[in-house]
Amino acid sequence: MPHHSTISLRVNGENRSLAVDNRTTLLDALREGLDLVGTKKGCDQGQCGACTVLLDGKRAVSCLQLAVANDGAEVTTVEGLADEDRLHPVQQAFLDFDGYQCGYCTPGQICSAVAVIEEHAAGWPSAATEDVRPEAGAPGLDAAEIRERMSGNLCRCGAYNSIVRAVAQAATMREAEQTVTSSGTEASA
Asked: Do residues 68 and 2 make contact, with C-beta atoms less than 8 angstroms apart?
């Protein structure tokens, strides 16, 4: 039985192929195989969130994912969020609100925040959501919701208040963009 495999991933919009030991985690494949070192290795046990990436559009701790199990997947790391020279709104909000201190957890925090905003926009409830009935609609994205949804990402420096403000600001920006987009779509219809 072979101990190595060649896998294909679509990483940050680019098709990549690499040979990996079948025991290699997605985190190690990204950092060591593709030299994408923005994703950090924290606890290596899936508890700190430093290695969070977007895997097929959903957040995932990459230290618990085998690279071979994700053959053919789409992976977005913190390096792939910006639009050329324009930072992703979450990245910009983290800068604007000092949502980082040492910066080690920041890539995972940012990837998680991107997913949190999308999950909320899709109407997904969290453990902090008071009324989970579908007819209640999406909960407001207040500080309690943000804290609960981001609870899988730890910050040793304790920048949580700034992180919550950054996520709230980025969510507000997303809502404003969606409103403008849907207004333009309705006007052209």
From this structure: no
Query: Do 153 and 112 touch, CB atoms closer than 8 A?
Result: yes
Closest by CA position to 12, among listed 45, 41, 35? 35
Question: Do 21 and 14 meet the contact criterion of CB atoms below 8 Å apart?
Answer: no
C-alpha dist (Å) from residue 113 to 6, 56, 108, 109: 31, 16, 8, 6
Give 35-77 pLDDT, tens digit per residue. Answer: 999 999 999 999 999 999 999 999 999 999 999 999 999 999 9
What's residue 1's pLDDT? 63
pTM as predicted:
0.91
User: In terms of DSSP H, where are the helices of 65-105?
Assistant: 89-96
Q: 3-class DSSP state for residue 177?
A: helix
Q: How does strand 52-55 pair with strand 58-61?
A: antiparallel
Q: Are 35 and 11 in contact (CB under 8 A)?
A: no
pLDDT exceeding 90 applies to what percent of the chain? Answer: 78
Instruction: Give the list of residues 6+ apart from residue 187 with CB closer than 8 angstroms, or none.
Output: none
